[in-house]
Amino acid sequence: MRVDEMLTAATVQTGRTDFGDDSFREGLDRLVQSINAEATLNEFGEAVLPLLITRLLTTRLHIEDWHRRHSEIADEPIAAPLIGLGLPRTGSTALSFLLAEDPNARSLRLWESGQPCPPPSTVEPPDPRIAATKANMAIQQEMNPRLSALVPSAPTGPMECQELMALDFRAHYFPAFAHLPSYTDWLLDADLTSTYRYERRALQLLQWGEPTRRPWRLKCPSHLLWLDALDSVFPDARFVMTHRDPTDVMVSVADVYHQVGKQFSRDLDLHYLGRLNVDQWATGMDRLLAFRDAGRDDRFFDIDFRAMQADPIGEVRRLYGWLGEPVTPEFETDMERWWTENAEHREENVHPDPSVFGLDLDEVRTRFTQYTARMHDWIRR
Which of 204, 350, 355, 365 is in the most buried spot, having the most CB atoms within 10 Å? Predict the structure, then answer.
């Protein structure tokens, strides 16, 4: 896999040459070096990962072209977004789907996250990207139904920020595709300021031309790792954080990594996946505690996983009371419909024994002791 060949392919496909700020090059170079030196890709992975990287490069070219031709896009305000945080597998996906039912707010939708151009406001509905996303999801369901059950999604439903972060090639989802230890180690301590600046640039494009500006509802668990950079770009953001016992989380998230990675790799070290997730998320929680303790605790609203399961609409009402925004009858009705339909089709997830991933739950509990103590304080407020 060669960086220069993918850069050339992207420019040939689009007829454009301006990738914007070249901050993306370090992440791209490190990612490709790690894939070439460390990944054990299968035939599918060898075919798909270069296509994924080239698609991200073509997206940058298109975004820059739209900004060049319409300089007013850069004036679009991204004001006071609500950003979902927390460990994976804590109910944050369900919460994001409920929040996406608010007609007075704006979520990052799955169909636009991977292909933000052309801006949705410039396309007559129905946008063909919706049907294309639905077809891709059907293929994914056939290839790996277990992954589809573990990670619920819908073409018009909300999506994490991962695809937009990947445009700067600093994204937490790359290590899920393959064994990339050198890239993963670098990413943990990388400066993601340019990443969040480019995400903001993409969000401006996505909301440009809409009849009314609506506040964004964003979500990505891995924001925990780079909160200072996130805050520097979105200084007026508020955060909703979902909480669950880490010992209930680590096996589940390692299982997701396994289900994703086995599609692209010949073999995976499951014990490495267990260690990786414990180390990464424990680091994320340490950084979160420091961030909140630095005078930012009042920007957080906390939701317990069990409370969310027991009374999801009530928890959203509490959240909106904190935001100072109304839960309209239409919003509440649509949330109730989504929750009922999701419950009817939800499949029970049975995860492997922790030992499959080399996990000792007592050790996991020890790694998250400080977070767990604070979690109980936060959710009782």
Answer: 204
Residue that the structure tokens 């950003």 belong to: 83
Average pLDDT of the chain? 95
- Distance of alpha carbon 356 from alpha carbon 351, whole angstroms: 10
* Number of domains the chain contains: 1
Q: For residue 153, what are its two tokens?
A: 């999604």
Cα–Cα distance, 173 to 161 (Å, whole number): 10
pLDDT single digits (tens) 161-187: 999 999 999 999 999 999 999 999 999
d(CA 32, CA 41): 13
| pLDDT tens digits along 355-380 | 999 999 999 999 999 999 999 899 98
Domain boundaries, position 49? 3-380
Question: pTM to 2 decimals?
Answer: 0.96
* Domain CATH number, residue 239: 3.40.50.300
The residues, any chain, with a CB within 8 Å of residue 213's CB and separated by 6 or more, are 76, 77, 79, 207
Rounded distance, CA 48 to CA 54, Å? Answer: 10
Spatial distance between the Cα atoms of 18 and 150, rounded to a whole number of angstroms: 38
* Amino acid in position 238: R
